[in-house]
Structure formats: structure tokens, C-alpha cells
Amino acid sequence: MNIIGITGSSGAGKSTVCDILQEEYQVKVINADKIAKELSKRGTSYLDEIIEKFGKDIVDENGELKRKKLAEIIYNNFEKRKLLNLCTFKYIKKEIKSKINRTKKENVTIIIDAPLLFECGLDEFCNLVVGVISQKDIQIERIVARDNIDYESAEKRIGAQEGNSFFKEKCDFIIENNKIIAIHIAIIRIIYRFVWNISEITFIK
Predict the structure, then answer these.
(1) Which terminus of the chain faces fewer neighbouring Cβ atoms within 10 Å, N or C?
(2) 29 has which bridge partners?
(3) Average pLDDT taken over every residue of the chain
(4) Where on the phi/psi map is residue 166: left (φ > 0), alpha (ψ -120 to 50), or beta?
């Protein structure tokens, strides 16, 4: 089974790349952020641990996680962000491993879409890791439009995450997602090289 990791900081365009792969190549996408949302629903062990670490005010009157409040806390406090990540990673990794095992019989290529792929140890599951990067100003514009937050908040999110140099150093392949046409060309090259076991991987724009 082929497993490709797709990673990058917020607003880089990971989901766009995964959407294209899913639509054009019929791969199975496992989205780490969506799994985290599912695992943090009321009554789960993960949410109970978040409440234990961040207090009862982190949930609303219905017992649901206040996601915007949690995001505001972790993007303004490194120690709180580290605390949440330590809590989150074990649940995410366990669930993704379970999903991979359940998919083995399907004989499909799996895409793991995860912004913190390396930090979570998900690269251990991957045959190939692709980093999606973009110019900072473009990322901020995307975050503002997507999450309906102000420029300063979006900039803080970018500042709290690893920069492009981290992904260039860690990943097997880099997609510079500044123009949509470049994404299509890059993905085709990734698939071609991966399927045909061509070991030489180059950086492209």
C-alpha cells in the first residue's frame, strides 16, 4: 500500500492539493484536522483531557468545545500550544493508524493530510512526504478569507507554525502553491515519480 503524507502550514493549500488528488486519482484522504474535530466531541476521552488541562470554561453550556477560544489561547501562548499538542498527537496517531489498517484490503493509495505530520510522528506511516508551501502574504489572505478572522490573528497563526525552510528540509518533495496551474503540474510529477519508483526527487515551482 502506498501512503503519501501531505503537510504544510496553515493557508499553504494542503487541502487544495488533497482535493485534486482525490478527484483526479481516486485516492483515499485521511484528514488529521477532521479527525481531531471528531475526537473532540462531547463525551470523548480527548475532550475530557482538554477540559482537564484548560479548564471547564473551554466548553460551552452544551459541553461542546469552544474551538475559537482554544485557538486564541494556543496561538498566543507557546506553552499552552505545546500542552495541547502533547494531548492531541496520541489520539490522532492512534486513530489514523486504525484507519490505515482498515483500508489495507482496499488496495488504494492513502493520503494523510496533516499540518503537524512530523510533530505527530505520522511520517512513520508514509512512503513519501510532500510539503506544500506558499508566500506568507498569500497564506494570510487565504486564512482571513477561510476562517473569517482579522489580518493580525492570521499572521499570529503563521508565526506560531513552522516556516517554509522546515518543510524544504524535512519533506521528500515540495509544491510551491502560489499559482493553481503549478499545483496540477507538481501533482502529476509526484504521482509519476512515486508510482514508477523514480528515486530522484527535485524541487519545482
Answers:
(1) C
(2) 111
(3) 86
(4) alpha
